[in-house]
Fold Multidrug-efflux transporter.
Amino acid sequence: MSTQVNFKSINQLAIPATISGIAEPILSITDTAIVGNIPVDGLESLAAAGIVGSFLSMLIWVLGQTRSSISAIISQYLGAGRLTEVKDLPAQAIFFNILLSIMVLLSTVFLIEEIFALFNASGKILEYCISYYAIRVWGFPLTLFTFAVFGIFRGLQNTFYPMVIAMLGAGLNILLDFVLVYGIDGWVPALYLEGAAWASLISQAIMAIIALVLLLKKTEISMKLVFPLNKEMKRVVFMSLNLFVRTLALNAALMLAVREATTLGDQFIGAHTIAINLWLFSAFFIDGFAAAGNSMGGRLLGAQDYNGLWELAKKIMKYGTIVSLGLMAFGFIFYRPIGRIFSNETVVLETFYNIFYIVIIGLPMNTLAFVFDGLFKGMGEMKYLRNVLLAATFLGFIPCLYLGIYLGWGLYAIWIAFVVWMMIRGFSLVWKFRRKFQPLVQNP
């Protein structure tokens, strides 16, 4: 099966993937903006939402890597014209992943206070962390299921249905946030921070149901668990384990950033919460082109079309860079209004404004890392991705972070470390791609 590598084919995947990709950070941003403006204990609620959100993102990213493994294998078999050989694989992989997620959920739900104490949360912030997490954690298996279904659709070169699911989920979450956080006079009591948690949980449940229905109705993929295990299940497990280790390293950086921001004080964790949500929003926005690279890259590799693979890498990088420059311009033009969306606390806003420019100028480097990250996932290069993240985190981010803290740079140390982190990731992936595939390309 041939794959056209052009503006239309790339954006048919990238645009829906961008919309679906930003749904998750939109959920977090909505929580952050609405919670940050709660009239009672808004600063403490914002800090708690940031800490819990970071921890849940870590769990989802660590255990959600089956999505990339499924997507890579399905797209490669699709490109090779042998899709029927892996039709029973998704159900087996999803069952394994959900079982693992339930085990993790049960192991954390009884240790909530101890977990968030490790983030230096205390007093009212710790109390809010516990109540917020106790509700949101039950959406964890639902999100993992939805992510795995997204991976199946992506492998089938379909990012439209994930977009529909994500848009419906994000819209519902925003509506429920306003209703449950602030309440409706005489109808619904204001639940404040817990209302945001319930809004997220209900939205995650609806998204999982819609994902299951579309998968069963619109594809030939079965969700019936059958034995023996598919021959590619072993590959799924090993690819997922490599990504599991990689994501632990990734989240080590994110968690250390939250921990050090919390140590600096309430205004700093509040400012960092706003900044990291905007960073993640831009990351998922750019990630639409990474998703296109993931889907098309696996298919081109399966078809052994190395010229097409080389052309794909150049074009998705070009389009991703244009988008990142647009986001940079938007960030600088609306520098202060963006901050006021998330908080009405002057001390939090001024702290945020001091470091927001670092988030903005790092966007092109983020594009380089994210685009090639998606391409490598589609090609099944999980081992190299693991090694790059380990090196970037333990030889780049952590030394830079603690050197900056030692020098008294405060929140600047965290965000400069993020820039160094992304530089190592991006340049390492470009070097590897050129070294491996340039010799295979005719007239590169």
